[in-house]
Amino acid sequence: MPKNNEMVQKENDKCPCIIDQIFTGGLQSDLVCKRCNGVSTTIDPIWDFSLDLGPVTLGGRQPSSLHECLDRFTRAELLENKEKTFCSNCQSHEESTKQFTMKTLPIVVCFHLKRFQHTNEVKKKISTVISFPEMLDMTPFMSRSKEQTSFPIDNRYSLFAVIIHVGPTIDIGHYVAYVRQQHDYWYKCDDDVITRANLKEVLGSEG
């Protein structure tokens, strides 16, 4: 898919390896001071999205779809009390908001659902089913500059592979992969057993 050539070229200059060429995007972080409205922006490389599934969203429930997980990931977060940040304009620690958005997208985008929690030496798996689409439009999660009012490039991604964990905990179970081959044929890879699958089965998996 076409991307911002200038940004991609800068990223490629840092590392020409095929992994970075395919999987690296640009994650923009905007820190806005609540006192003076000053904005501090940084852009860092990102290779995959690690998306939280718990404890709960602002709506009082866990996310149930990939879109909701991304909404949560890109939602502005209030930093207050002990989380106050230093504002160079105010020359003091002030309340602020922090928000992540995508400056540039990679050729292949990967999502990691954080299903395993470690609390009080107890390992727990979050088995909530997270629905995901065959086609995902990343435009709502892109950074919007003042000069840019629309996104003429195509930010849509088609589903290519899904890896799921089968089992109650991180210590019990194993991983199964669904992979799309040519002509939209899906296959289920369970250790050394490869069987045909269909899109309905893939979209109905735990994710």
Automatic annotation (TrEMBL):
This protein's GO CC annotations: cytosol; nucleus
The organism's place on the tree of life at top rank: Eukaryota
SUPFAM superfamilies: Cysteine proteinases
Gene Ontology molecular function: cysteine-type deubiquitinase activity
GO biological process, one term: protein deubiquitination
Domain USP residue range list: 1-207
One Pfam family per UniProt: UCH
Gene3D superfamilies named among the record's database cross-references: Cysteine proteinases
InterPro entries on file: Papain-like_cys_pep_sf, Peptidase_C19, Peptidase_C19_UCH, USP, USP_CS
Family named by the database record: Belongs to the peptidase C19 family.
Listed name of the protein: USP domain-containing protein
Organism: Diabrotica balteata (Banded cucumber beetle)
